[in-house]
Amino acid sequence: MRKSLLGFLLQAFVFTSSLPLTLYGAPTLSPVLSIEVNATVKDMVLDNNTLVIATDQGRVDVYDYEKQVFTQRIVLPDVKDFMGDLMPARVYSVDVLKGRFILLSDSGKGGYANVWLYENGTRTQLLSAKDKLSAIKVRFTNKNHILLGLLSNEALLFDLEKKKMIFSVQLSESKFSDFALSLDRSQAVFACESGILNIIDTSTGKELKVLQGQNVDNVYKVDFKNDFVSAAGNDRRAAIYDLGSNQGTYMSAAFLIYATALSPTAKRVAFPMDEANNIWIYETESKRQIALLKGQKSRLNTLIFKDEQTLFSASDDSTVNMWKIP
User: Fold this and answer.
1) Among 10, 57, 240, 258, which residue's beta carbon has the most beta carbons within 10 A?
2) What is the spatial distance between Cα 228 and Cα 131, in angstroms, rounded to a whole number?
């Protein structure tokens, strides 16, 4: 998407310098619950009191964390690898809305994705390798539409009832990394390898804002809550944008930052800030450290706040952790 330089600058956020970390006085906490899924977790979403967990073993597990029991399992058919051998289809992305599940998995062919709808015990394939979409993330924008993020940094909206694309928007020439929806699902922030973030209207694909100045390299993960955006960067920068004030800041980490999450009110933000996969919790505006969460064993890929005190985390391993923060 090309714009005049003036238009680009008008949408760009104001740069402010790095803020120091607050290291002292915060409690160190351990998980209050660890969930074993017997597969490597690739993605995870929260649906009321259940976790919907996508794995590399061709399945999605639904876990009720209050009753501490698995309540449902969705299994996809195996795919053939490049040698022609059958293998489980890695489920890269998953979402659920009003009883509908959407799954994005590996097709085993040319890096293209399969997309499945699962509802009332029935699995329907919506997209396959023949559609030639290198999609790696999917989310519902409403019950009848899904938003896809492609490696080419394209945003696609797909109509589930009409089974056709509504729009396809090329956001930049940089490689796509992640996107996150606002709480009402009306907007999405897209991240890519350039460090620049794009906010779009999810019903039209129209670009609403450009966020830049805080990350200067690949942004692995983003979150979007209550007019705040957080970004986890390859440049060891934990970035925060305030959409209300058009200001951005970042905190410097000791290691690459692979995940982030904002609480529902955006008053708290989580980042893994060191090589040990510890999760650091901060007050979003003051950057005061609230807690240090220790116990994650592998590289983090997903963080989700349930509320201001409850956080869920998943890594490139088989364990999902639940944390309680004062």
Assistant:
1) 240
2) 35
- Tell me, yes or no, whether 7 lies in a domain: no
| Residue 12 forms part of a structural domain | no
Mean per-residue pLDDT for 288-316?
Answer: 97
**CA torsion, ordered 256, 261, 262, 268, to nearest 10 deg:** -60
3-state secondary structure the chain: CCCCHHHHHHHCCEECCCECCCCCCCCEECCCEEEECCCCEEEEEEECCEEEEEECCCEEEEEECCCCEEEEEEECCCEECCCCCEECCCEEEEEEECCEEEEEEECCCCCCEEEEEEECCEEEEEECHHHCCCEEEEEEEECCEEEEEECCCEEEEEECCCCEEEEEEECCCCCEEEEEECCCCCEEEEEECCCCEEEEECCCCCEEEEECCCCCCCEEEEEEECCEEEEEECCCEEEEEECCCCEEEEEECCCCCCCCEECCCCCEEEEECCCCCCEEEEECCCCCEEEEECCCCCCEEEEEECCCCEEEEEECCCEEEEEECC
Report pLDDT digits (tens) over 147-202.
999 999 999 999 999 999 999 999 999 999 999 999 999 999 999 999 999 999 99
Q: How many domains does the chain have?
A: 1
pLDDT per residue over 255-282, tens digit each? 999 999 999 999 999 999 999 999 999 9
- Please give the structure tokens belonging to residue 154: 């394209």
In a domain, 11, yes or no: no
Read off the pLDDT of residues 200-210 as tens digits, 9 standing for 90 and up: 999 999 999 99
Joined tokens for residue 290: 């609230």
Nearest to 176 by CA among 238, 93, 246, 250: 93
Domain ranges, residue 130: 17-324
Q: Write the CATH number for 132.
A: 2.130.10.10
Q: How many residues does the chain have?
A: 326
Q: Is residue 245 part of a domain?
A: yes
